[in-house]
Each structure stands twice: as C-alpha cells, then as structure tokens.
Task: inverse folding
C-alpha cells in the first residue's frame, strides 16, 4: 500500500502531455507539440565549455550541501546587481533545479495543516508540493479580466488563522502575466500585515516583453525577511537539463533548506554548478537574443488567435506561454464529442489534429488550454494552421 500522502499527489499534466507527444513522434506520427516549458535554444557555448573544463579538472565530487561557495557568491552578486537585494552566501541555497528549491522552501516553513494561498491559474506543481510538505493549498481564483492577477482584497478573503504563506509567480507560468511594482507593493503590505511567508518564484525573470521585473523582496527589510526568492538558470540560459536552481532567504530558513537538502540529495550536481557559475558571470547576450525571438513568436501567435473564430487570448507580457480561451467551445459538439472542459478539447485536438497542448484543468482553470511558444516558428505556424482546420471542419453545434 502506498502512503496516504503519495496517493493525494497528482502527476504533472505538462510532463504527461510532453511524454505522450514524444511517444507519438517516436512512433512516426506527424504530431506538433506545445506542451513542455523548455526553451528550444541550445545552451550557450561558454557554459558548455565551463562544464567540460570542470570534468577535465576532476571537479566531480561532492560539494557543500547548499552549493559551492563560489557559486553562492555569484548568486548573491546577481541578486545585488539585478534586483537590489543584499544576501550573504550563507543565505543562498543552490539546488537541483528551481523545482527542488521550491520543495525545500515549503518543507522548511510548513507544519501539518498550514495553509498556503495559491493564485489560480497556477503552475501545476505548487499545490502538489504544498501537499508533499504537509500543507494545505488554498486556491485564490483570478480572471482574465483582471489579467489573471491576485490582489490584497482577494487574498484577504482567503486568509484564515491557519494561513502560513502565499505564492507569487511573476512572470507567470501558465498565464505570462507580470505584476507591476505597484501591485507587488500592495501584496507585500498585505503579507507583512498578516506575517505571511511569501514564496516568490521568479524563474522567468529575464523573459519579459513589456514592463520590467521587480522582486517583491526588494521593497523593505520586513518583506525581505518573510520572502523566499526562487530562481535558476533553466529558462534564462536554456539550461533545463542541467538542473540548477537557487533560493535566497533569511538565515534561519536558508539553514533549514540546506539541512533538508543535505539529507534528500546531498548536494547539487558539481559539474552543473560550474556551468551555472559561467552562466551568471558570462553576460546576458545569448539570453537577450532568445528573449527577442520569444517576443516575435508571442506577437505572431496572439495575432493569429485573435483572428480565429471560437477561441481568443490575452497578450502575455512575460514567460513563453499563451492561455487560449475556449469558452465559446464549452458545451459544443465537435467531431461527435461534447466539449465539457479543457481536458476534452485537448484530447480531441490531439486525436484529430495531432497537436499537443496542455489543458488548463491542471492549472486550476477549466476553459483554457496552454500553448508554449518555446518552439520553432515553423512548428507554431503548423500548429495554428491545424487549429484553424480543426475548428473549420468541426462544424460545431
């Protein structure tokens, strides 16, 4: 018998869609995938060379649990240089991906029954991570009319005596929305007034197309002390497989996260840490080129969706996702199948048009599907053409 905790955790729908897409492709099926959130660019050469050099130097042994001092200093320098945040290397914990950093953070701060406010749409793993840490996710629903953003009034309505923390993800997966400085200041004041921890996931920090990134921890010492800032090299430097994330927190939380990690994983990959150091110290030229390409793809997709009957979308300002609204299709019959929710649409779209998108149900919304534009323009053009034909031929009633 598996544990009660394990039985309550759902598998990742994004990875499930990506796995099915890859299986179909391997079987020779002409399928186009928009599921996984992974830059389609190669890791920059100077980063790969740093990893090769580390191997040749024999840097293949255990490192300190929280990461090498060299890398933690580089992360601290990054926070000061880019975010105006002052951290000591001992306040930094380098982990096996930002996902690992989030698990460490939730485990470090939550006791059984503690509630965590999670704005929806949310990244699929937040509620499951909270459950794994014995917490209770409390979903705070937003709407497209509000740009999928949460505000203090909405948060206040969800607070209970058991509320311990809240999650902020800007730029957002899956919506691509970006909080303004004014909006974040209001949320920071709310968190401080209730003495709530803030888990601030900033992994898409450098993929913003309008506006600018502001870390919620940067406003004052009170909110900084309550915030765990989570980031990493995966999205900015096309290093998803290298599995290096990092978090910054007050000394007590950082020490707890390091201790947890020491038992769970010993330490992050030693070779990947050298590559991450090269990434943080090597400038942003490659990242900026990637950002410009993503913006071009985003603009094209938004224009296309706005011209197709039956679907719509808002323009995201960051990350590399678009939430396509399928409200008009809910309750309709397409190809003999009644579309009750995003799961039905995504499955039918995959079966008929051979296009893989992620249903919004995994993100806490039933009438949206997520498209990732972290794929080539050729794939994007092909996927949208298939969407047009799929809807035109459906003759939905």
Result:
């Amino acid at each position: 018998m598996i544990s009660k905790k394990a039985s309550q955790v759902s598998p990742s729908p994004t990875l499930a869609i990506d796995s099915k897409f890859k299986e179909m492709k391997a079987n020779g099926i002409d399928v186009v995938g928009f599921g996984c959130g992974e830059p389609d660019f190669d890791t920059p050469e100077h980063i790969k060379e740093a990893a090769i050099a580390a191997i040749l130097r024999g840097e293949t042994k255990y490192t300190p649990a929280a990461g090498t001092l060299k890398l933690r200093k580089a992360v601290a320098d990054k926070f000061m240089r880019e975010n105006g945040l002052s951290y000591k290397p001992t306040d930094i914990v380098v982990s096996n991906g930002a996902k690992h950093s989030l698990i460490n953070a939730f485990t470090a701060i939550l006791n059984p029954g503690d509630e965590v406010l999670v704005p929806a749409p949310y990244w699929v793993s937040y509620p499951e991570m909270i459950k794994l840490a014995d917490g209770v996710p409390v979903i705070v629903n937003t709407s497209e009319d509000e740009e999928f953003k949460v505000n203090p009034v909405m948060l206040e309505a969800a607070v209970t005596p058991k509320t311990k923390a809240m999650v902020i993800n800007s730029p957002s997966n899956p919506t691509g929305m970006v909080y303004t400085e004014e909006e974040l200041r209001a949320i920071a004041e709310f968190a401080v007034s209730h003495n709530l921890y803030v888990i601030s996931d900033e992994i898409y920090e450098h993929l913003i197309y309008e506006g600018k990134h502001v870390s919620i921890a940067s406003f004052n010492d009170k909110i900084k002390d309550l915030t765990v800032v989570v980031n990493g090299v995966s999205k900015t430097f096309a290093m998803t497989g290298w599995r290096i994330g990092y978090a910054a927190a007050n000394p007590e939380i950082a020490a707890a996260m390091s201790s947890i990690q020491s038992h769970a994983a010993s330490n992050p990959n030693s070779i990947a840490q050298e590559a991450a150091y090269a990434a943080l110290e090597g400038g942003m030229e490659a990242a900026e080129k990637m950002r410009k390409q993503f913006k071009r793809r985003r603009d094209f997709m938004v224009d296309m969706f706005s011209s197709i009957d039956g679907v719509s979308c808002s323009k995201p300002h960051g990350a590399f996702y678009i939430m396509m609204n399928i409200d008009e299709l809910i309750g309709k019959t397409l190809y003999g199948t009644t579309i009750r929710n995003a799961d039905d649409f995504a499955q039918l779209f995959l079966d008929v048009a051979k296009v893989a998108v992620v249903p919004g149900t995994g993100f806490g919304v039933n009438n949206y599907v997520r498209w990732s534009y972290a794929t080539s323009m050729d794939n994007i053009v092909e996927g949208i053409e298939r969407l047009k034909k799929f809807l035109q031929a459906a003759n939905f009633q």
Observations:
- The first strand starts at residue 32 and ends at 33.
- The two ends are 46 Å apart (CA to CA).
- The CA atoms of residues 152 and 190 lie 6 Å apart.
